[in-house]
Amino acid sequence: MTRSRPSWPTFLKVVDSAERKVAKLLTVITGVVIVAALVQLTIRVGTDLISPQPANWLGDGLIKVLGDLLTVLIALEVLQNVTSYLRRHVVQLELVLVTALTAVARKVIVLPASSENKPQLLIGLGVASVSLACAYWLVMRAGAGRPSPTDSSQ
């Protein structure tokens, strides 16, 4: 007596369906995170503008605002990655590299002044920046990051 197994195409359809549901859930969660971060950034900037101390915009205050702004930008890029995946069912390497490069740049921008005593951290961030920039350049040069002119899904 042989057991009947689900056919391979049926299994792949179930996996594909589950994958799309997870991507949609990630889109909703990322949207909530973006709205929360945007509200937090707006409150911070509004409070700093109303504050009688203009020093909030200098030094560490400015770096914190820029860090929050870049965090929202990174979240938007992640949302774009997920929605692009939902539309084309393909991970776009160019978007992933730009998101990673923005995240490393954010880390460099918000580094505290005491980081100069951590050479491994600075070297690591430098190597990551150069590696991501080179990878992005290679992807753009190869044309893998651009949709083909015959791509009608846009």
Task: Tell me the number of helical segments per DSSP (H or I, 4 or more residues long).
Answer: 4
Provide the structure class: mainly alpha
- Gyration radius, rounded: 21 Å
In total, how many domains does the architecture comprise? 1
Shape: flat
Distance between the termini: 51 Å
Major sheet: size, sense and barrel closure?
none
The counted number of beta strands is: 0
Mean pLDDT: 82
Proportion of strand residues? under 5%
Roughly what percent helix?
A: over 70%
* Subunit organisation of the chains: single chain
Low-confidence segments, given as residue ranges, are none
**What's the SSE pattern?**
HHHH
Task: Lay out the secondary structure.
Layout: H1 8-50, H2 60-88, H3 93-109, H4 119-142
Can you walk me through this structure?
The protein is mostly helical. The chain has one domain (15-142). Helix content is 73%, strand content 0%. It has helices at residues 8-50, 60-88, 93-109, 119-142. The termini are far apart. 3% of the residues are buried.
Features:
0% strand, 4 helices, mainly alpha, single chain, 154 residues
